[in-house]
Amino acid sequence: MTILDGKKISNQIKDEIATEVSRMKERGEKVPHLAAVIVGNDGASLTYVGSKVRACERVGFESTLIRLPNTTSEVELLKTIKDLNENDDIDGFIVQLPLPPQIDTQQVLMAIDADKDVDGFHPTNFGKMALDMSTFIPATPFGILELLDRYSVETKGKHTVVIGRSHIVGRPMSILMGRKGFPGNSTVTLTHSHTKNITQITSQADIIISALGVPNFLKAEMVKDDAVIIDVGISRVPDDTKEKGYCICGDVDFENVSKKASYITPVPGGVGPMTIAMLLKNTLLARERHRANNK
User: Fold this and answer.
1) Superfamily of domain covering 139-272
2) Active-site residue, 116 included
3) How far apart are CA 197 and CA 189, in angstroms?
4) What is the pTM of this model?
5) Are 259 and 221 in contact (CB under 8 A)?
6) CB 62 within 8 A of CB 56
């Protein structure tokens, strides 16, 4: 059994990006600039955005953090997005989800300039991804592909089962794993809350990608020997033995499933670190595109 070490690979990617940024500076070029907008004080979102800012510092990017109060209206947020769209100094930006209930998330994602949408959520980018065109791939799916690639995990002709159909992970993963090329060329089954006999389906899978958000959902009896297990889930589970009062759990019963798997991602330290690394990679791509378009 091999651990797919997202922490190690993400650090490799950050080092590669930092080297590229150093070269850009030597050539006298503008370095990539990533902005993040956060509305409200959601603890997990603040932690996540903070780690993005630190990652920018590490690789030599410029970064801007825009914090708006929880009472921000949709009109006010859309004005902020318009300003970022029109700011030539910003190469890419993200609006941290979830947003407060008074704001229509779809309207916000639609308002982001597709050329600055480094999260890869805009319908233009999603459509290009589905058509195998060059575009921004959502950071978490992009990170999973990179893990499979760097560990040379065979995907061609394999049966991939994706658990969960969110627009952020499940649905894009189902498209990407079925595309021509590597990683890809697998036969994909997309399962969700209405899927019947899910154990029957997962037990036939060569690769399982679980993005359900239900702690320890995937049990050993649901997995065949030597399956590849990608755990995207991350949940806080109350645990009185821990100083914080909780532990971080994935969708997979790691202790038991790992005994049967050929490859498996841990939680934490698997897919999570890869998401931020690929957001940086998308921002570097955005910077290169902007430079090419302005020649």
Assistant:
1) NAD(P)-binding Rossmann-like Domain (3.40.50.720)
2) no
3) 13
4) 0.94
5) no
6) yes
In the set 5, 91, 117, 119, the catalytic residue is 119
Residue 200 bears catalytic tag: no
User: Which residues in the chain are classed under CATH 3.40.50.10860?
Assistant: 28-113
CATH number for the domain whose boundaries are 28-113: 3.40.50.10860
Looking at 14, 52, 158, 281, which residue is catalytic? 52
Q: Which residue is catalytic, options 96, 158, 231, 251?
A: 96
Residues 151-193: tens digit of each pLDDT:
999 999 999 999 999 999 999 999 999 999 999 999 999 999 8
Q: Which residues contact 13 (CB under 8 A, 6 or more apart)?
A: 146, 274, 277, 278, 280, 281
Q: Please, what is the angle between helix 43-59 and helix 6-26, to 10°?
A: 50
Q: Which residues contact 184 (CB under 8 A, 6 or more apart)?
A: 155, 156, 176, 177, 178
Q: Where in the chain do CATH 3.40.50.720 domains reside?
A: 139-272
**For 245-266, what is each residue's pLDDT tens digit?**
888 899 999 999 999 999 999 9
